[in-house]
């Protein structure tokens, strides 16, 4: 865990807290309220992410939510990196946790895919390319967006662990990716149940 060396308990908590507060900003809810649409938590899945924003009929708001939810993960890492590599890794985890469990919304947040992508961009951009390729491949074959996200998020930390193994070490970044992937799967429990039941909506499906 060379990234965390010298950070100390106080520094680690500060990085986590900073990332959490930034990640907990509910951009989807804020944007839809400013636009005067229906309460995001009362439509569709009740989720605050871009997919549910799209159910308001506002593609522009959904795109903005996707971008901002990703950027809050990236910005948390980039800012905290000034304190050290370990701080950046922990801030990324904090941002992801903040999006999933925002204190302002009684810990009922989004599912984390966009913020996961944003953290990837800042911590390990080749991993983001791998994630995108995996997502596109699975989505093309199955037409399931949720399955594509689940497969890509599961394989990415495995890939990073393989690189760690080749280098003869296990890094904090690998552990953070594993934690994030596990939490993303946990938040996608309803999607997994629908996938198993064959009732999950496919990309482009109407009604």
Topology of this protein?
Blueprint: H1 8-23, H2 27-35, H3 50-54, H4 59-80, H5 85-100, H6 113-123, H7 125-142, H8 145-167, H9 172-187, H10 189-197
What does this entry show, briefly?
With 207 residues, the protein is mostly helical. Helix content is 70%, strand content 0%. The protein has one domain (2-197).
Task: Summarize this structure as a short list of keywords or feature phrases.
single chain, 207 residues, mainly alpha, 10 helices, 70% helix
Describe the structure.
The protein has 207 residues and is mainly alpha-helical. It has one domain (2-197). It has helices at residues 8-23, 27-35, 50-54, 59-80, 85-100, 113-123, 125-142, 145-167, 172-187, 189-197. Helix 6 packs antiparallel against helix 7. The longest helix is centred in the last third of the chain and has 23 residues, at 145-167. 45% of the residues are buried. The model has no long low-confidence stretch (mean pLDDT 91).
- Please tally the helical runs, counting DSSP H or I stretches of 4 or more residues: 10
Please give the radius of gyration in angstroms: 17 Å
- Count of separate structural domains: 1
The percent range for strand residues is under 5%
Residue windows where pLDDT falls under 50 for at least 5 positions = none
**Total count of strands:** 0
Which class do the helix and strand fractions yield? mainly alpha
Gross geometry = globular
Tell me the series of helices and strands, N- to C-terminal: HHHHHHHHHH
Distance between the termini: 49 Å
Instruction: Please bin the fraction of helical residues.
Output: over 70%
Q: Mean pLDDT across all residues, rounded?
A: 91
Major sheet attributes = none
């Amino acid at each position: 865990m060379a990234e965390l060396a010298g950070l100390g308990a106080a520094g680690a908590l500060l990085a986590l807290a900073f990332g959490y507060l930034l990640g907990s900003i509910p951009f989807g809810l804020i944007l839809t309220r400013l636009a005067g649409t229906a309460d995001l938590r009362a439509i569709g899945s009740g989720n605050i992410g871009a997919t549910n924003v799209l159910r308001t009929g506002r593609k522009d708001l959904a795109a903005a939510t996707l971008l901002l939810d990703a950027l809050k993960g990236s910005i948390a890492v980039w800012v905290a990196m000034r304190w050290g590599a370990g701080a950046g890794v922990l801030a990324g985890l904090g941002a992801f946790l903040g999006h999933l469990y925002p204190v302002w919304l009684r810990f009922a947040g989004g599912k984390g895919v966009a913020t996961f992508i944003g953290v990837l961009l800042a911590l390990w951009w080749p991993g983001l390319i791998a994630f995108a390729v995996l997502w596109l491949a699975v989505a093309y074959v199955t037409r399931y967006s949720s399955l594509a996200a689940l497969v890509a998020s599961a394989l990415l930390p495995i890939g990073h662990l393989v690189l760690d193994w080749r280098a003869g070490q296990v890094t904090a970044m690998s552990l953070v990716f594993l934690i994030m992937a596990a939490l993303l799967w946990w938040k996608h429990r309803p999607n997994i149940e629908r996938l198993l039941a064959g009732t999950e909506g496919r990309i482009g499906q109407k009604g």
